[in-house]
Every structure is written in structure tokens, then in C-alpha cells.
TrEMBL record:
It comes from the Eukaryota. One of its GO terms (biological process) is protein ubiquitination. GO terms for molecular function: ubiquitin protein ligase activity. This is Uncharacterized protein. One of its GO terms (cellular component) is cytoplasm. It comes from Rubroshorea leprosula.
Length: 66
């Protein structure tokens, strides 16, 4: 899952290249939800990988213990 993070900001035309956020609270909430989704996906992937590793280890153990 790829998530695009956009800042929802407008550039200030004062020549300094700063970014002025009109609705910081909403932008922060959106960013937090996207980060949470990434963390949840990572945790699912990690749990799946650990489960697969455990299954391979058990299979290996039973294969060579007979």
C-alpha cells in the first residue's frame, strides 16, 4: 500500500519559499491517519513474516527429527 502525503498548503508569495497551512488541524489529522495506516500495514506484514518463519522452522524440525 502506497500513501501519498500532501501538505494541503499554499505557497506564500513573499519570496522566502515558506508554506502557509490554512487548516493545520485537519492536515495533521489526515497525516496521522496515513501514518497509522502505514504502521498497521507494517505490523501485519511483520506478523505474517514471523508466522511463516515459525511454520518453516516447525516443518524443518519435523522433517529432520524423524
Amino acid at each position: 500500500m502506497l500513501v501519498e502525503l500532501d501538505a494541503h498548503c499554499q505557497h506564500v508569495n513573499d519570496g522566502c519559499g515558506r508554506c502557509k497551512c490554512d487548516d493545520y488541524g485537519i492536515s495533521e489529522a489526515i497525516l496521522n491517519r496515513k501514518v497509522e495506516a502505514i504502521v498497521n500495514e507494517y505490523n501485519e506484514l511483520l506478523a505474517t513474516q514471523l508466522e511463516n518463519q515459525k511454520l518453516v522452522s516447525v516443518s524443518y524440525y519435523f522433517h529432520f527429527s524423524w
